[in-house]
Phage abortive infection protein
Amino acid sequence: MEVRKNKNENTFDKIARYVVPISAVFIVIVFIGFWYWAEITPDQIGQVGDLFGGLINPFLTFLTVLLLVYSVRFQVDELKETRSEISKSTLALESQDKNLSIQRFENSFFKLLEHFDNYRANIEFIKYGNVEYQGKQAVEHYYRSFQNTYLKVDVTKDDDSNPYQKRTIVIDDSTKSKEGLNTKYLNFYEDTFGEAFGGYFRILYNILEFVDSSVNIENKSFYTKLLRAQLSRYEVLIIFYNCLSSFGDEKLYPLVKKYKLLKHIETKFLPSEHIHFLKELE
């Protein structure tokens, strides 16, 4: 803008400094020359003045109009440049505001992620009154406990004559339906699991909901992938069962599905009788 402005100002200055004085000098020279060579008598001075007035006035009027037109054009260009600069400033402010908004979001997101990690690290698997495992190891043993105690049943027919009889453990038929599986999960949650994992699922939901409701964040999946990368295989399995239950199917499950938190679930750790539930969740 400054270069164009200076160019316009220089052109205007040249017109004002050179064209007007040169025109005035030219008029004076013509008048003197006409006076000198035409041998005008005093009686003819008035007529000569009228003649020059008739010739010069239109020229001066034209020159005035020319300067006026150029002045108007100069002002129009200035207004265009001003609007352009205002537009650029507005875009710059919007970009700055967006960057600040993203920065605030990321600060909150990573604090939530840190809180989530700290909470998980303090999860304890307690057996017979003693803390046996903590953190991700505790999560693994909670999942194994859920499988062995609530999902499986012993269908072995006791044979008193065989003290080394092999036990037959199978998946409870009642868990092959969503309603039956929900009942088993609720029992597990109320017995031991809920006290350790209630806060875990609340934090997980709040992180997903926070990302999902942030209007200024375009690539939301980038942040949910960071969250997904924090989850162990047993956490993903437990989230799977929670989404099937009445605890998680209404609020948590839609966000888990939207941001594909179950994408890397390892089906080899799922009972084959429950794999069809995974297809329902996808």
The chain has a mean pLDDT of 81. The chain has eight helices and four strands. The longest strand covers residues 130-134. The two ends are 56 Å apart (CA to CA).
